[in-house]
């Protein structure tokens, strides 16, 4: 699973996703999956999408994961009254901006990469699109 060994703080504020274009172009592979909206992706979603791509490729080709879940998410237990502070960390998320490349692929055919991208996009909670290096 993708999450950091250590963080500066145990709990973070929610924050807002911005429209940054820092990772808006393909850098490593020929094909990629690009987010169409800003949002948050859990570490389970990233791992599930990565596994779906790997299984579709049958361990051929290469995959680069361009997002990393480095922000802890907290939640309070069920049936607990309001107040008494913030809940305990329960998972990790990655903030994703619009137009950010999430995954990159190389070493496979175009049709195989498109099929893998479709499988992976079903695992993610954001709308995505398939991009090709030109």
Question: Can you walk through the features of this model?
Answer:
With 134 residues, the protein is α+β, with helices and mostly antiparallel strands. It has a domain of 88 residues: Aldehyde Oxidoreductase, domain 3, CATH 3.90.1170. It has two helices and seven strands, in the order ββαββββαβ. A four-stranded antiparallel β-sheet has the order 3-6-1-7, with helices on one face. Helix 1 runs antiparallel to helix 2. The radius of gyration is 17 Å and the shape is elongated. The mean pLDDT is 92. Belongs to the universal ribosomal protein uL16 family. This is Large ribosomal subunit protein uL16m.
Give a quick rundown of the structure.
The protein is α+β, with helices and mostly antiparallel strands. The protein has 2 helices and 7 strands. The model has no long low-confidence stretch (mean pLDDT 92).
* Shape call: elongated
- C-alpha-based Rg, rounded: 17 Å
Per the CATH scheme, the topology name of the domain at 31-74 and 89-132 is Aldehyde Oxidoreductase, domain 3
- Secondary-structure content class: alpha+beta
Note the beta-strand portion.
25-35%
Q: What summary fits the major beta sheet?
A: 4 strands, antiparallel
Helix fraction bin = 10-25%
CATH A-level architecture of the domain at 31-74 and 89-132: Alpha-Beta Complex
Count of extended strands = 7
Q: What number is the mean pLDDT?
A: 92
In the CATH scheme, the class of the domain at 31-74 and 89-132 would be Alpha Beta
The count of helical stretches stands at 2
> How are helices and strands ordered from N to C?
EEHEEEEHE
């Amino acid at each position: 699973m993708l999450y950091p060994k250590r963080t500066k703080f145990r709990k973070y504020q929610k924050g807002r996703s911005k429209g940054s274009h820092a990772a808006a172009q393909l850098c490593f592979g020929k094909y990629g999956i690009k987010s169409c909206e800003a949002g948050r992706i859990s570490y389970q979603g990233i791992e599930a999408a990565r596994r779906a791509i790997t299984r579709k490729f049958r361990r051929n080709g290469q995959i680069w994961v361009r997002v990393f879940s480095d922000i802890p998410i907290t939640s309070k237990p069920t049936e607990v009254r309001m107040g008494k502070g913030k809940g305990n960390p329960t998972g990790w998320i990655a903030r994703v901006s619009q137009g950010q490349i999430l995954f990159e692929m190389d070493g496979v055919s175009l049709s195989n990469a498109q099929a893998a991208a479709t499988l992976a996009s079903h695992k993610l909670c954001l709308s995505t699109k398939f991009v090709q290096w030109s």
